[in-house]
Amino acid sequence: MVVKTLQSSQEQQLPWVETPLRESYALSQAAGCRIFLKLETLQPSGSFKSRQRFRGIGNYILRRLEELPANIATIPHIFCSSGGNAGLAAVHASRTLGLPCTVVVPTSTKPLMVAKIKAAGAYECVQHGAAWADADKYMREVLMPSAGSSAIYTPPFDHPDIWCGNATVMHEIAAQMPSSPADIVICSVGGGGLLNGVAQALDQLSLASHTTVIGVETSGAESMQAALKAGQLVTLPKITSQATSLGCARVTQQTLDYALRMKVRSVVLPDAEAAMGCWRLADDERIMVELACGVNVALCYDGRLERALGRKVRPDEKVVIVLCGGSNVTVDMLAEWRSEYAYLEEIGETREAEIPSVPSAVTGGKRGASRPQGLQDVFAYGAEAKL
């Protein structure tokens, strides 16, 4: 029986790891408080979305398999639309269960990510449409019908089972954090699946009133901040950020509800500063991450965290950054970003009098690049001061 075979596969192979929580002394020195890194980049797919059984995508797939009739005779076929990381996670989870997985990504997804999805063993990786919504519609209306009853639709972020899986990130952090809970958790926001999981876990752990959540987006993909400003869901007309993993034009209703109730701090950074976070993390911790993750790390440098909070940080405050994606990055990409956005290092130097010495400053990139006109300032929803 197909179901028995799947159950046996689930029992024998679980492609997940409990990721470490590591204090970073370099980033702590830069930020002026204690910075801890939750290393979700060590998951099999390089992203928090991959963790089988306990993280979002894997948990969702297992729940759908449990719902299949006992007498099913056809092998389920997983279909996942994605900007990249969710699709890669779906392929890893599906392969472990011996299932085929088709992934559909927009044309904006980088060739590197498409190649990784194919190399991971995707049944097929299709590129269609300018944005994730276009890819998702094409998959559901054109590709899935041909698979008939064997097709299992797998959303990248918008489902309670995905949020439940992602909630275990915060449960692990709570168990790993020494002596007292985290004061602040920083996570990036695309469609809101990770933030929903973090917020859900804080409720479960009775920490919602203690721990501040900062949700970070890149300029050109700031769908959560647009919703917070409007007080209702907003669909962005276009995604212009290079951080394609965050390229969702509309967050979930649950994300907006959590953000309003928990007073989540919403921060938007331009791609340039996300890139800066990537190369400085590589300098300071020898960890490579993509733009969608580097945008979180950028808050540690040049006073950005204090401006995001609208106050001074305390040296004993414990801040956890969820390092959520390390798939869509190479050494060459880091070098290109550093060359293109070198002016950010010069801007950082002007704040040396008020900011502690930043370790990566000694290995700064090419100097002399001018700052582009109209570069968006960083800003926090609910903060009085611009960042």
UniProtKB/TrEMBL annotation:
<dbReference type="GO" id="GO:0006565">
    <property type="term" value="P:L-serine catabolic process"/>
</dbReference>
<feature type="domain" description="Tryptophan synthase beta chain-like PALP">
    <location>
        <begin position="18"/>
        <end position="325"/>
    </location>
</feature>
<dbReference type="GO" id="GO:0003941">
    <property type="term" value="F:L-serine ammonia-lyase activity"/>
</dbReference>
<keyword id="KW-0456">Lyase</keyword>
<comment type="pathway">
    <text>Carbohydrate biosynthesis; gluconeogenesis.</text>
</comment>
<comment type="similarity">
    <text>Belongs to the serine/threonine dehydratase family.</text>
</comment>
<dbReference type="InterPro" id="IPR001926">
    <property type="entry name" value="TrpB-like_PALP"/>
</dbReference>
<dbReference type="GO" id="GO:0005737">
    <property type="term" value="C:cytoplasm"/>
</dbReference>
<dbReference type="GO" id="GO:0009097">
    <property type="term" value="P:isoleucine biosynthetic process"/>
</dbReference>
<keyword id="KW-0312">Gluconeogenesis</keyword>
<dbReference type="GO" id="GO:0004794">
    <property type="term" value="F:threonine deaminase activity"/>
</dbReference>
<protein>
    <recommendedName>
        <fullName>L-serine ammonia-lyase</fullName>
        <ecNumber>4.3.1.17</ecNumber>
    </recommendedName>
</protein>
<dbReference type="GO" id="GO:0006567">
    <property type="term" value="P:L-threonine catabolic process"/>
</dbReference>
<dbReference type="GO" id="GO:0006094">
    <property type="term" value="P:gluconeogenesis"/>
</dbReference>
<dbReference type="Pfam" id="PF00291">
    <property type="entry name" value="PALP"/>
</dbReference>
<dbReference type="InterPro" id="IPR050147">
    <property type="entry name" value="Ser/Thr_Dehydratase"/>
</dbReference>
<dbReference type="InterPro" id="IPR036052">
    <property type="entry name" value="TrpB-like_PALP_sf"/>
</dbReference>
<keyword id="KW-0663">Pyridoxal phosphate</keyword>
<keyword id="KW-0963">Cytoplasm</keyword>
